[in-house]
Amino acid sequence: MSDIDLAPLQAELSRFDLQGRSGLLPALQAAQRLYGWLPQEAAAEVAKALGVPLADVHGVIEFYSLFYSEPVGKRIVRVCTDAACGLKGGEQILSGLCARHGIQPNQTTPDLSTTIESSPCLGLCDLAPATLTVDDGRWTIGDNELRPRSMVYGLSSLLTSNCGKGRAATLAEYGAYPALRRALELTPEAVIAEVKAAGLVGRGGAAFPTAVKWEGAAKAESFPKYIVCNADESEPGTFKDRVLLLDDPHRVIEGMCIAAHAIGATRGYIYLRGEYPYILPVLENALSEARAAGYLGKKFDIEIRLGAGAYICGEETALFESIEGKRGYPRIKPPFPTTNGLFDQPTVINNVETLCNVPLIFEKGAAGYRQIGTEKSPGPKLFCVSGDVAKPGVYEVPFGTTLRELLTMANGSPVDWLSGSAVNQSTEQPDSRITEKLENGLQAILFGGAAGAFATPAHLDVKLTFEDLRAAGLPLGSGVVMVFDQSRDLRQTLARLGKFFAHESCGKCYPCQLGTQRQMEILQRLANGEWQMGDSERLQDVGWTMTDASLCGLGQTAASAVLSALKLGLVKL
């Protein structure tokens, strides 16, 4: 037992005691801010204040990777070693830092000054290699940036019109929620009909029709009803929601307000991933501005919940469990969230990009919105481009843009990927950065993130729409486009993907719990040049078993990229 002063914690906990168990995550985060970790006495005090069994409190602490049950350093350095950062030397940075401090990864120096962690994706893939340092409550990205600044490009500038300026747009700059004003002139049924006419589908990966969700929750007879923004952007290669929240927070708030009017919700939650702590003050300020202006606080209000490090909480029902103060285990469906969601009440959950499309629909009207994109894939789409390109960043393009056109934009010049050269259309020489990036030519593109699939140069003229990508056997997913040139050893990339899923599996269902471990072991053998006879068959057997038998989307897609790489012959066995 450590000798700690509980008085400051008791004062903090007075803010959460009325929330009961649903206040558990913020209460534990408050305790960890005070003591740097979660001693037994602090956990017991939290349990007593919230009326939660101490065993359950410890179960939650052990589940989330950003909670510490042992002392850690005053300064915690998290080094991303996932796919995009792995290409740029993430492992070398990790090993160099550890050597400098005389420790191994995920260890703390004897004087408790520094902890160095190998971290899953930090959502900074466009800035790779990325590190996030937490030092006495201050966050540093890379060497000295307190706020990551991403480049934003595109053929259109609708969702990202306020992005890329290096600061958040104020309410005065954003405007007096004009889309909400138009929506409030309509009945809730008419609002849902407008969203349905616009053809908006979810931008988080599942592509479920947004209006169908809203309609189901609106018709549910139980109250209260909730709007939840899924901002747990944890898919490796994805960082678009981070940019939207940092640069234009009022757009997602306005989208949530319109959704609340449509279904009759009185409460909203923004669930922000734990690796994005620097976004928290930006969102809090924007919510304060919205309350002061009268958009929030009367009929509808929004609370932020900061996650604590768990990829599985991007799954909607696991996210509900987390808000409710539990381990982030996915629920069995049915029942579905529209009738039995957060706190077992009717709930609409949409991701950040989806909600940011909602104001655009009411600014342009459904017919105007459908003028963007294609008939079956209307609207603009954000793509997260990283890896071996000259200009990584967020790209806003209309659906129907080809992969070749997108990658040409990302290299600042028309590209002949097959020959690995930039096309010179002027008397000027190609940018040296571009030719350096292209000298090895294109090998593969990872679509949709770790849970996605690989494309090859044969796919360059595929249109970026739901229907065209589906026909090509590729998932749009969360908008990840990670590029690998011919110099890259994809065996190493697959090993990183395998390690990611083995680390992030929640363990609730056996196919995923065991399958991700076996997959990681086989892929590590492949990366080490220790391939065994029959490993190809083993990977496929494990992969299809997880796909067919896992409880949620994590296990169902944990082998997708691996199986596609084997099918396309991208790794030599």
What does this structure look like?
The protein is α/β, with parallel strands linked by helices and 573 residues long. The protein folds into five domains: 7-63, Arc Repressor Mutant, subunit A (Orthogonal Bundle); 75-141, Glutaredoxin, CATH 3.40.30; 167-366, 3-Layer(aba) Sandwich (Rossmann fold), CATH 3.40.50.11540; 380-485, Ubiquitin-like (UB roll), CATH 3.10.20; 490-568, de novo design (two linked rop proteins), CATH 1.20.1440. It has 23 helices and 17 strands. It has helices spanning 7-13, 24-35, 40-50, 54-63, 83-87, 90-101, 171-174, 178-184, 188-198, 210-219, 240-247, 249-263, 280-292, 316-323, 352-369, 403-410, 432-438, 466-471, 490-504, 510-527, 535-549, 553-557, 560-568; strands at 75-80, 107-108, 114-119, 131-135, 138-141, 152-154, 226-231, 267-272, 301-306, 347-351, 380-387, 393-398, 415-416, 421-422, 442-447, 453-455, 480-485. A six-stranded mixed sheet has the order 6-12-11-17-15-16, with helices on both faces. Helix 1 (7-13) packs antiparallel against helix 2 and helix 9 packs antiparallel against helix 10 (210-219). The longest helix has 18 residues, at 352-369.
